[in-house]
């Protein structure tokens, strides 16, 4: 699904992956659950591109619903993988970068079961990313450290296109945007700080890891 020229949301995948087209090369943001690589590769082929056209995969954070399809994509395409060093260390052993904080026994059992059922295959990251770096796509895709949901969470902002890819640092819901909170948030004050940091950018389009894309995003950021 094309969001804006050269930016696509690949549908039907838990934890939204986004595809950027620039100068005939493809950049993917996040990789979905294990098995999601099949839908991603079909989508790429449906646009008329080959697997080798996928040059880079940017990862917001190491949760299994964002990196589950990564190992298979890396093998199929040879794309270089980029992430923050903290998340990369977790990805190398196929684990999240922080422990969840369930509030009761039921939640603890649920998270334990999910951890047993869903495991991402280990992946070696090719290059670490940090705040202030820029990729030469979409007129300059800026790397933002948006810690809080996880200790090494990243977001990506293209000022010329007004598009902000927020991973799970901000969630899109029917009632609007909200910051990360609850059992899967590593540090709440840092999460709130990351929301404020992103709200100040003036993005027109917000692409979250969960929920619909938010167009005309000005004024829709949560107040934290």
Describe the protein.
A hairpin with a 2-residue loop joins strand 3 (18-22) and strand 4. The model is unreliable at 104-113 (pLDDT under 50). The protein has one domain (2-98, 123-208): Metallo-beta-lactamase, Chain A (4-Layer Sandwich), CATH 3.60.15.10. The protein is globular and about 45 Å long. With 224 residues, it is an alpha/beta fold. The strands form 3 sheets. A 7-stranded mixed β-sheet has the order 1-2-3-4-5-6-7. A 5-stranded mixed β-sheet has the order 8-9-10-11-14, with no helix packed on it. The chain has a two-stranded antiparallel sheet with strand order 12-13. The two termini are 31 Å apart. It has helices at residues 37-46, 64-67, 70-77, 85-91, 105-117, 188-199; strands at 2-4, 7-9, 18-22, 25-29, 54-58, 80-83, 127-128, 134-135, 141-145, 154-158, 163-167, 170-173, 176-179, 205-208. The protein is built from 6 helices and 14 strands. Helices cover 24% and strands 25% of the residues.
Q: How many DSSP-defined strands?
A: 14
Largest sheet report: 7 strands, mixed
Give the mean pLDDT: 92
The strand line-up of the biggest sheet is: 1-2-3-4-5-6-7
CATH topology: Metallo-beta-lactamase, Chain A
**Helix-residue proportion:** 10-25%
Rg from alpha-carbon coordinates: 16 Å
Terminal CA distance reads 31 Å
Order of helices and strands: EEEEHEHHEHHEEEEEEEHE
CATH architecture term: 4-Layer Sandwich
CATH class: Alpha Beta
Tally of separate helices = 6
Q: Which regions contain 5 or more consecutive residues with pLDDT less than 50?
A: 104-113
Content of β-strand: 25-35%
CATH homologous superfamily descriptor: Ribonuclease Z/Hydroxyacylglutathione hydrolase-like
CA-based shape = globular
Q: Determine the structural class based on helices, strands and strand pairing.
A: alpha/beta
Number of domains: 1
